[in-house]
Design brief:
The strands form 5 sheets. Strands 1, 2, 7, 8, 9, 10 and 17 form a 7-stranded mixed beta sheet that branches. Strands 18-16-11-19 form a 4-stranded mixed beta sheet, covered by helices on one side. Helix 6 packs across helix 14. The protein is α/β, with parallel strands linked by helices and 530 residues long.
Length: 530
């Protein structure tokens, strides 16, 4: 059964990018937000560290721009970086005006510092910044009569001319088909504009700081619809997640190192000075590779982050959630070193957009981690992601405002067709294939890569894709099947991007081409389905 809905704006995702966009869009029309689990389940909600912005008189826009460009290793879009840095502070103030509580000290914002930043500029709410921002935005959405938020709705495919059997290179998005998996119905949501704000893809790896929803759905859908995808090889591994069998890669924020934490080996010796003059405050790609190398050399399962030399009262005040969580696993961080390992954290690539959030598909915008506007380049600077989401979602809605009166929403599209499918009993295939694609990516497409590893990964993922597509075509749709299909797609895009980049740069390091090659690869890796 297919139910048709119409709206001015469809937003896919309920993180900071989607909610901020929806609130602005509600000023000019009605909005539907769909999110595949609860509204608060997003990468934003899990973001501990904070939001980077120039809010101190001793800091400067140029310094933040330079830090971002340096982290991006020659692949950032400089204009996009300048836009984000210069427009960002106003959006921080806007969040405060609607009730966001950031940590203060002596009546002023308590600005922290993280790896890669040359000044204290991280606005935070203790160590649960994302959760605080999400709380305020969700409250504003709930109060807004023009916004309808549909939980437990899984966006399956973007609606384009291809659903009318029309072949065209000038593609337009008219909305999306969504599975309401509680009511077991499909909704055909037709819209004047669609904002992809579906978050990242961390679940393509077995160890990730991302929530379970981060399965790359938006990137996979956009690719299948014909959008351009950029720089999928650049997956950031957060260097410090709690190493404990029950911790599920709990993130130990970069701000802990910014506060004075020091990376050490089991015997208490420091090692980061061997890799970078900034030592424990080096950018994430350098720190993650250093930890990976030290673990392989020593045979240990982890390294350690030592904060025992810092004031225990200040530690508990700044990082109450980290302190409490570690203590629940029997680790008192004021007295014991924290065991840490790298885990997949953030995708710097994604759906290619311009500086106002427009993708290569008409009426389709993208913002946040699903998008690639060029801010992050080959490596994201810490705490720039929430800032990017605010700035470019605001720019996207300003563009849509200027166009809404010229957009019609009267094209008729067919209902979702699942004829010939049946409820299968082979669900073990879904679980097995998900675990296998995650293990393949961990083994062969992790922090350090090689031509041989990538070729092995491609063969395995191609087989899983073929097997899963056959299962998808004959089976009634479920969220588990949709997620698996999308995970396999983004895994193949990461592999393809990595194979195309015949150099090492930022987050992509290959032993076959260990040097940076500015002559041939100072450009985006571009992928498209047709």
């Amino acid at each position: 059964m297919t139910i048709e809905l119409k709206t001015d704006t469809l937003v896919v995702g309920s993180g900071i990018a989607g909610l901020f966009y929806a609130l602005k869009a509600s000023e000019i029309g009605d909005v539907i937000i769909i999110t595949k689990k609860e509204s608060s389940d997003s990468n934003t909600n899990w973001a501990q560290g904070g939001i980077a912005a120039v809010l101190d008189e001793e800091d400067s826009f140029q310094s933040h721009i330079d830090d971002t460009l340096n982290a991006g290793v020659g692949l950032c879009n400089k204009e996009a970086v300048e836009v984000m840095v210069k427009e960002g502070p106003d959006h921080i103030r806007a969040l405060m005006e609607i009730g966001t509580h950031f940590t203060t000290k002596k009546g002023r914002l308590d600005l922290g510092r993280e790896g890669g930043h040359s000044h204290n500029r991280i606005v935070h709410s203790a160590d649960l910044t994302g959760q605080e921002v999400e709380r305020v935005l969700l409250r504003k959405v709930a109060e807004n009569p023009n916004i309808q938020l549909l939980e437990h709705h899984f966006a399956m495919e973007l609606i384009t001319e291809h659903h009318l059997k029309q072949k065209t290179n000038d593609i337009t998005c008219y909305g999306a088909y969504a599975l309401d998996y509680q009511a077991r119905t499909v909704k055909k949501i037709l819209s004047k504009s669609t904002m992809l704000a579906s978050g990242g893809l961390g679940q393509v790896y077995p160890h990730t700081t991302n929530p379970s929803i981060a399965t790359g759905d938006g990137i996979a859908m956009a690719y299948r619809a014909g959008a351009y995808i950029h720089n999928m090889e650049f997956v950031q591994f957060h260097p410090t997640t709690l190493y404990h069998p029950h911790a599920k890669s709990f993130l130990i924020s970069e701000a802990v190192r910014g506060f004075g934490g020091i990376l050490k080996l089991r015997d208490g010796s420091e090692f980061m000075h061997k890799y970078d003059k900034r030592q424990s405050l080096a950018p994430r790609d350098i720190v993650a590779r250093a930890i990976d190398n030290e673990i392989k050399k020593s045979g240990d399962e982890c390294v350690f982050l030592d904060v025992t030399h810092l004031d225990s009262k200040s530690l508990k005040e700044h990082f109450p959630n980290i302190y409490a969580t570690c203590l629940s696993y029997g680790i008192d961080i004021t007295k014991q070193m924290i065991p840490v390992v790298p885990a997949a954290h953030y995708s710097c690539g994604g759906v290619a957009t311009d500086l106002i959030g427009r993708t290569s598909i008409n009426r389709l915008y993208a913002c946040g981690e699903v998008a690639s506007v060029g801010v992050h380049g080959a490596n994201r600077l810490a705490s720039n992601s929430l800032l990017e989401a605010l700035v470019f979602s605001d720019r996207a809605i300003e563009d849509f405002k200027s166009r809404i009166n010229n957009i019609q929403n009267d094209v008729r599209f067919p209902d979702w067709d699942d004829s010939g499918t049946e409820n299968a009993e082979e669900w073990i295939l879904v679980s097995h294939n998900r675990k296998e694609v995650q293990q393949v990516m961990s083994d062969y497409v992790g922090i350090v890569r090689s031509d041989l590893r990538l070729e092995r990964a491609k063969r395995r993922v191609d087989f899983l894709k073929e097997e899963t597509e056959a299962f998808y075509k004959r089976t009634k749709i479920t969220p588990q099947v949709l997620e698996l299909r999308n995970l396999i797609k983004v895994a193949s895009l990461i592999i393809e991007g990595a194979q195309k980049r015949r150099e090492s740069r930022g987050l992509h390091y290959t032993t076959d081409f260990p040097e940076r090659d500015d002559k041939h690869f100072s450009c985006n890796t571009v992928l498209r389905s047709f």
